[in-house]
TrEMBL record:
Cross-referenced Pfam families: SnoaL_2 (PF12680)
Residues in SnoaL-like domain copies: 20-119
Positions in coiled-coil regions: none
Annotated source species: Rhizobium fabae
Gene3D superfamilies from the UniProt entry: 3.10.450.50
Name of the protein described by the UniProt record: SnoaL-like domain-containing protein
Length: 129
């Protein structure tokens, strides 16, 4: 990770864990908006299987849509640390009740430029049969 040819080394795990827990899992709108400004470029693009969003407001609306439909007991978690190289990171996650098995699992892939997330691609795993 420290062998980047330009710029400082990227803390993929730190940035992606913050993206998940300080933004997507944050139900307090003020704290979430502050984290969005800190972690994402102003021109960030978010790509979900059936939706797209841009900018800080787009991230906030995306998260609000997810959390407003989920029961208060639902929490996010990760399957191991995020990894990355050459400005691209990935992290596997799960979402569901804190006292039960995940309802949704997936993978986030991000592009990072100048220490901020510029693109986020969300991949949802197919439901278990």
């Amino acid at each position: 990770m420290g062998n980047q040819q330009t710029g400082p080394a990227i803390d993929y795990d730190g940035l992606m864990q913050a993206h998940l827990f300080r933004v997507f899992a944050e139900r307090d709108a003020e704290r979430r908006r502050a984290a969005i400004r800190e972690l994402y470029a102003e021109t960030v693009s978010v790509f979900e299987p059936d939706a797209e969003a841009t900018g800080h407001d787009g991230v906030d609306h995306t998260v609000d849509a997810i959390l407003s439909k989920a029961p208060p007991s639902f929490v996010f978690g990760t399957f191991g640390p995020a990894i990355g190289h050459h400005g691209i990171g990935r992290m596997r996650w799960h979402f569901g009740p804190s006292d039960g098995p995940p309802v949704v699992t997936g993978l986030d892939v991000v592009e990072i430029v100048d220490g901020k997330i510029t693109k986020l691609y969300v991949f949802l795993d197919p439901p278990a049969a």
